[in-house]
Amino acid sequence: MKSIFEKYGISRQEVLEWGMKHYPQFTNENILAQLYLRHVKKVNLDPNDVALMTGKEVDVEDLQPGEWCIIQVVVGAKVRSNSYRGCPECYKRVDDNNMCPKCGLVTPVDLFWDTYVAGDNTGDVMVSFPPRIANEYRNLEGTILKIRGFLNDQGEFIAQNIEVVKEPPKSLEEKKEQTVVEKEVEALRNVLLNFPEVSYEDLKTWHRQRGFTTDLDLLIMKVGAVKDENGKVRLT
Ligand SMILES: [Zn+2]
Q1: Across the chain, which distance is largest between two alpha carbons, in Å?
Q2: pTM of whole model > 0.85?
Q3: What is the CA(111)–ligand 1 centre distance, in A?
């Protein structure tokens, strides 16, 4: 998620100037930016953006269970990833007939709850990202984030909104790319081990439903499989 300034294409400078004129006794950039957007730019703000900007910034060592706050951390390794089949619109779990309790019949997708260790200069903490965030950001390792959320009773910080402060260095980016390809190759290998003669068309559907980003033909090549004249794909 971008900062409120970036997202709505306004500068900090114009907000502060407007604020000086109308609210000279306040310098709270977040509230001023919200008011400026709503009253000058006539923008209907996304409630998530408003929530993101609201809260106290807290050091990790000072986190208290149940208190909503904002932490700024660098994300370390992913320690857990739980997935389930759910609704692509509202992220609720679907039943065996692909029925979402809220949206009705849907085409379910794999949804993730990802947990990473993350920290600032005062300490580190496990941070869990719900599917709304984890499915958009499959790999946050090395990223500096502002996270709004709260510490639960198990001592895990539950993220509600995030703002990317800084992307990971290039060397990590490259590794990340490689990891995505590797994961998708691995998934294809598992399919081919379970279904030794799967049709290319079925694989295309599977590939699309998983939201894989690596080209299917490239995956087939990398896994060491071939497509025969009948359109069946098999490991060699
Ligand atoms: Zn739904």
Answers
A1: 76
A2: no
A3: 12
